[in-house]
Amino acid sequence: MKLQSSLAAVAAASTALLEVAQAHCYIYSVYVNGVDTGTFEGIRTPAYNGAPPYGYANSPVKDLDSIDMRCNVLGDHQVPRTIQVKPGDNVTMEWRHDARTATDEIIASSHHGPAMVYLSPDPPTDNSFVKIWEEGKFAEGEGARAPGKWATTADIAANGGKMNARIPKGLKAGFYLIRAEMVGLHEADASYQKNPIRGAQFYPNCVQIEVLGDGEVELPEGVSFPGAYKWDDPGVVYDVYCSTKTTTTAPCTTTYQIPGPTVWSGAWPDTPSVELGAMTGVTKATNWDTWIVKSVVTSASAGKVMGTSTYQAQWSSTYHAPTPTA
Predict the structure, then answer these.
(1) Calpha distance 263→89 (Å, rounded)
(2) CB-based contact 295:47 (threshold 8 Å)
């Protein structure tokens, strides 16, 4: 009874938390050349923050100094499947908020911001993440006080949550992590470091891939996560809604500088969208047996809490093949 009561209490608390999760997103599936690899396959899904069905795995990372900036919470944990690709392949990541359905919100219309894709050998090391795609504010808004058109809302969300990238030409065979990221700037008028209630919201998500073929191109030195973004970067502290205000204390900045390094010269100059085939897998997550709240991992089985432990990210320095599912 005590264990069941504790689970009920966690679920009740998660119900309240759910109300603040309605705008957030993470990757549900990956298409390779238009073929769906399956829901959650190869994706290091972020940790759920409560018991099913009320917990969610789409919370943002706001602390630029946190190891969670690398691949989100539990990003150090391998998943059983690694997606195989070849240089030149088109990779389409499908971002969702709650389900792979036509009515899913994907990300709130207020969450304007940039989107980026990085590539790193697996496991990552210092300065191993190389940017291969980015998009920020790509057009001015329509109307006198419109916030403009942004990657997260006017491109990716407007196109069913699809983010397109391409495996670099001639890339050397091996195991890599795709680090895809959406950024919400709706509260970025203040730095999280100075005001933890506000701050830019980062949604990093990593995908395990194996590059096949006989390519010889190695990734150059890149950036580290954490470390790639600084608290005073103009792309981190930015008033995305300045232009919508009737009065301001200073002139609005009309341009936007995307955080991080420039896109690698070895990346494809464009990443065209491809026709996508049928969806494979479930439309949403309905059950999970672990969740994390303030670094405390709760494990459950058949609706009963079995125990708790403390989570601390443990990134390996050498590659180990994932453990297959039974």
Answers:
(1) 18
(2) no
